[in-house]
Structure formats: structure tokens, C-alpha cells
């Protein structure tokens, strides 16, 4: 196996010069750099990662905690992160909590034990235990998707985006509007989106019926079940529109409505959030909120790299969104 001493001998430089070149630590002349690079390319020499880690105190690994890696949202966010991190020579170590809030805390500790250089957490809650775990972390942490106090965050504007969607649904002539949400223990998707719905309905002096407030669990199946319950609770069929907090649940709701021969949006309009690939190719295509997840992932990664480098960053980073006006409203 070729060693750093061999590289130095073949390049006609000292071992310390090769070390400085490999670790980007100290001056190496242009001519010497070119000779070292040529030898490395010709020999296929790969520096020892563990040895480099000992010298630089960095492993080149970033921990990513996701609530459910199989979802398109998580995939897009992680894809955006990867674009940034791979260009900077970092690898990602993924930890999937499968929507278990306790695992968020567990993985914060576990990833630190693996000596990652930093952690990006796709948060689903703001429990005091989680916040304490972030505050006590020995490496930089960025939270994506939740507004956590005193922590560097990339925040989706859930409240503002939902308000804009509801205003658009009302603008299209709909007054009796149902809501399919998720558990409010998720402050962003569960609480903020429901609060926006309730606030807009009150501002327009529209009736809010308890029977029209249903809850799912992010899945297509739960959206179907929520719509079925709403339908059964509306014998006079006054419902004119629904807002589902995720595309997946909207798809389930639409499937139920189609089985009942309901024409969308003529009979019932459907607005949602997520801008998934499926939302574009549904019939009708879904009017939805696009949180530009790839961009959000890139922003989170860049913030984390800045923190790793000791740079000062903004604590709250509100990411933009857009309303995609399609055919379901």
C-alpha cells in the first residue's frame, strides 16, 4: 500500500509538504502542489480518513435526522442538502425517526457519538426535552421546518402560506370549507396550518363546523377516512371546499369524493400543501403550496457549514413559498 512517504519521495518533496497539501494547512508552492497532485493521480493514493480526522478534528460527516425518509418532502430536502454538502467534501449519515418524536432526541445523542461535524434536524416538535438536547449538543445544529427558540432554524411560513391558500379558495366563491389536519403536537403542520384556517374563516365571518374539522396522519389512507367522516357528517351536502394540510391526504380525500361521483372543483374544491410530483399529474391537478424544499435543504446545509466554520448566522431564516394555482380549486 502506498504511503504519504512514498508520495513525498515520488514528488521530490518532504513528507511535511505532502501533509500540508493534503490537509490544506499551510503554504505549499504551486510547482510542488502540481507535482504532488500528479503523483496522487497516477498512483490512485487515497488519504486515510481516520488519520485526517485526528489531525483536523473533523470527520467530514454531517448527521441528518428525518421524520420519514420515504416521503417526497424529506427526499427533496435531503437532496438539496446533499448538493451543497457533497460539493464541500462532506458525506451524510441519515437517521430516520419514522415519526417517533423520542427518536429525535435519541438520534441527536447517537450522531454525536459517531463524531459527526454537525447535525440538521427535520423537526416535528418543539418539546422541552428536544430543545434541551439541541442546546447541549457538542456540535452545531440547524433545525429545518420548526421555529425553535434560540436555535438556528429554517422556517417554512406555514401560517402565511395556509392563509394565502384559504383566501384563494374563498376568492373562488367557496364559503363552506372543511379542514383535514394532523396532530397539533406538530407545531408547524399541525398547529400553524389549523390556526390559519380558523383565523381566515373567522375574518370572513364564515361558519366553522366541528364536523368539518377532521384529522389524519399524513397518509393517503387517513385523508380518505377523514373525507369519508366529513361526508357522513354533512347529510345536506353543504360542503363547498376542503383544505388538506398535505398533498397525500388531499389525494385520499379526492379518491373518496370521486367514488361519490363528486366533480372537482365544480362540486367541491380541494386545496392543499406540498407540491408533490403526484399533485401535478392528478386529475384534476392539485392547487397546492410549494415550499421549494430543495432550496430549503440547500439553505439549511449552507447555514450549518457556516456554523461549523465559526461564522455568525441568522437565528431565524424564513424560507419563501409559492401558491400553485391549478385545477382543483
Fold and architecture overview:
With 329 residues, the protein is an alpha/beta fold. The chain has 3 domains: 4-47, lambda repressor-like DNA-binding domains (434 Repressor (Amino-terminal Domain)); 61-156 and 293-319, Response regulator (Rossmann fold), CATH 3.40.50; 158-290, Response regulator (Rossmann fold). It has helices spanning 4-11, 15-23, 30-43, 49-56, 72-87, 101-113, 128-135, 158-171, 187-203, 220-232, 247-259, 277-281, 293-308, and strands spanning 61-66, 91-96, 118-122, 141-144, 153-156, 177-181, 213-215, 241-244, 269-273, 287-290, 316-319, 322-324. The strands form 2 sheets. Strands 2-1-3-4-5-11 form a 6-stranded parallel beta sheet, with helices on both faces. It has a 6-stranded mixed beta sheet with strand order 7-6-8-9-10-12, sandwiched between helices. Strand 1 (61-66), helix 5 (72-87) and strand 2 (91-96) form a beta-alpha-beta unit. The protein is elongated, with a radius of gyration of 25 Å.
Amino acid at each position: 500500500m502506498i504511503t504519504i512517504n512514498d508520495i513525498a519521495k515520488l514528488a521530490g518533496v518532504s513528507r511535511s509538504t505532502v501533509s500540508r497539501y493534503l490537509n490544506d494547512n499551510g503554504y505549499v508552492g504551486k510547482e510542488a502542489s502540481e507535482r504532488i497532485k500528479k503523483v496522487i493521480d497516477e498512483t490512485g493514493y487515497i488519504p486515510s480518513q481516520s488519520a485526517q480526522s485526528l489531525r483536523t478534528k473533523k470527520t467530514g460527516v454531517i448527521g441528518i435526522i428525518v421524520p420519514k425518509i420515504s416521503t417526497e418532502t424529506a427526499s427533496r430536502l435531503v437532496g438539496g442538502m446533499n448538493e451543497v454538502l457533497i460539493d464541500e467534501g462532506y458525506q451524510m449519515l441519515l437517521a430516520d425517526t419514522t415519526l417517533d418524536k423520542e427518536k429525535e432526541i435519541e438520534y441527536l445523542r447517537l450522531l454525536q457519538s459517531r463524531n459527526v461535524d454537525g447535525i440538521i434536524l427535520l423537526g416535528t416538535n418543539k418539546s422541552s426535552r428536544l430543545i434541551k438536547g439541541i442546546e447541549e449538543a457538542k456540535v452545531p445544529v440547524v433545525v429545518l421546518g420548526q421555529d425553535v427558540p434560540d436555535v438556528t432554524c429554517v422556517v417554512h411560513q406555514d401560517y402565511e402560506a395556509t392563509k394565502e391558500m384559504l383566501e384563494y379558495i374563498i376568492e373562488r366563491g367557496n364559503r363552506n370549507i372543511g379542514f383535514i389536519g394532523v396532530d397539533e403536537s406538530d407545531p408547524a403542520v399541525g398547529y400553524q396550518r389549523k390556526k390559519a384556517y380558523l383565523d381566515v374563516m373567522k375574518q370572513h365571518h364564515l361558519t366553522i363546523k366541528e364536523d368539518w374539522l377532521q384529522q389524519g396522519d399524513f397518509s393517503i389512507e387517513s385523508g380518505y377516512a377523514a373525507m369519508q367522516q366529513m361526508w357522513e357528517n354533512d347529510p345536506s351536502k353543504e360542503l363547498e371546499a376542503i383544505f388538506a394540510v398535505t398533498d397525500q391526504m388531499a389525494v385520499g380525500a379526492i379518491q373518496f369524493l370521486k367514488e361519490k361521483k363528486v366533480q372537482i372543483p365544480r362540486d367541491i374544491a380541494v386545496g392543499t400543501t406540498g407540491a408533490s410530483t403526484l399533485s401535478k399529474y392528478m386529475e384534476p391537478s392539485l392547487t397546492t403550496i410549494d415550499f421549494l424544499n430543495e432550496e430549503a435543504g440547500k439553505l439549511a446545509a449552507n447555514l450549518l457549514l457556516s456554523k461549523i466554520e465559526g461564522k455568525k448566522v441568522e437565528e431565524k431564516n424564513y424560507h419563501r413559498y409559492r401558491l400553485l394555482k391549478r385545477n382543483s380549486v
